[in-house]
Model the fold of this input.
Amino acid sequence: MATASAAPVVVKNPNVGRAYGAFAAGWLVPGAGYLFEKRWVRGLLVFASVAVLFVCGLAMGGKVYSPNAGDILDILGFLGDLGAAGLYLLSRIAGWGQLPVQITVADYGTKFIVVAGLLNFIAAVDAHDIALGKKR
Amino acid sequence: MMVSHFTAVLIFSVCVSVVFGITQRSEARAMLKYGLYCFSLFVVGTIAASWVMALIKR
Done:
């Protein structure tokens, strides 16, 4: 991802396969894309942030969206949830987040889970850009 | 887990600000500054919006 604070680093022969590997790893496990690039602190912070948001969302009674072709907001919610693929699959297998949302805090929890997925998407793309040399 | 709305805001703001700081800046110091900037905007913005809604309700 392009940054405002520093000029991009130019790498003559970026390893495209490694960059996509970093993206895939980061998508499946939050922060793993940074570990691919040996950015340990960034990886741990991203993992902690995404995992805390996802787990708090579940603990607040948030809903984990199923694959669906119904309401547009449900489809977008599913796509957001899918951003943290590993946590999403884990919660689907364990049956977490399947109860109906009945209180306000549970609605917040649903949003926490979606935002955790979206943040993980951003982090995975960032790891991809670091691997390509577009960012330090 | 029952949390107050403000606690939910704080949890959300911390987590999102950390990821925004890491992904939107390249240097450690700039990441920290941007993360703190995002966190304060989230919290102050929420409090301001809450006051606006409370005033509208009156």
Chain A has a mean pLDDT of 91. Chain A is about 65% helix and 0% strand.
